[in-house]
Amino acid sequence: MTLSPRVISGGIVIVPARGPMRTFPLQYNPDSVTRSLQPQGTGAGGQDRSEALRLKGPATETYSVDAEFDLTDAMEAAGTNPAAVRDGLHPQLAFLSGLVNPTSATLAANDALARAGKLEIIPAEAPLTLFVWSRHRIVPVRITGLNIVEEAFDTALNPIRAKVSLSMRVLTVNDLPYDHPGSTIFLNHLRAAERLAAPGSASLSQLGITTIG
Question: Closest Cα to residue 148, out of 99, 76, 86?
Fold first, then answer.
């Protein structure tokens, strides 16, 4: 008997300032993850030669993920657990929408402050959001884009199949206070990447050259 290896899921973890963490695994891992890094160099347009090789901070790193959700199989087995599909994909899509919206309680509290004559209302702070893609890639992120296409519905018009495009920007020590938990997670990610990027043993001859300079 051949056993298939267990496939772990990528996903999102919410780390609130108080209370338990919330984990949202993707139902199906995307076939691809788009990753982009924009170096943060110094100097104006490359005119200052003394600054050509300097980096003023971590690169601006972004991720784009296209995920699919499908309740077809769950609906076929709904006889044993009808509550699992009663609302279709609304719970999953509501979780994702919550990543880019302040809570209703926060909006109500801000309105109460405004009515009380407060001159300055601090914008709501979202809980720390982590993008997890294996143990080698755990990064704090800000959700910069969320696009949801609902493709099929049950008889009560609950979505049962959907595609979600998620865009994220990695938060670094330039975005968060250095002692913030998100900064610690980013630095751990950076250190892990540095360990993985151990120098290779290739020689110049493998590049078709014998010397440089």
Answer: 99
Question: How does pLDDT run across 51-95, given as a tens digit for each residue?
Answer: 777 888 899 999 999 999 998 877 777 666 676 678 999 999 999
The per-residue pLDDT for 68 is 94
Give this prediction's pTM: 0.84
Q: Note whether 130 and 141 are within 8 A (CB).
A: yes
Distance from C-alpha of 49 to C-alpha of 51, rounded to nearest angstrom: 5
**Number of domains forming the structure of the chain:** 1
Q: Is residue 125 part of a domain?
A: yes
Three-state SS for 130?
Answer: strand
4-17 in b/e form (b: 16+ CB < 10 A) is eeeeeebbbbbbee
104-122 pLDDT, tens digit each: 888 888 888 888 887 576 7
**Looking at the domain assignment, is residue 6 inside a domain?**
no
Q: What angle do CA 6, 9, 12 make, to 5 degrees?
A: 160
In a domain, 5, yes or no: no
Whose tokens are 């704090």? That residue is 140
Residues 6+ apart with CB under 8 A from 140: 128, 129, 130, 170, 171, 176, 182, 183, 185, 186
State which residues form the domain around 164.
11-207
Report which secondary-structure segment, H or E, holds 86: none
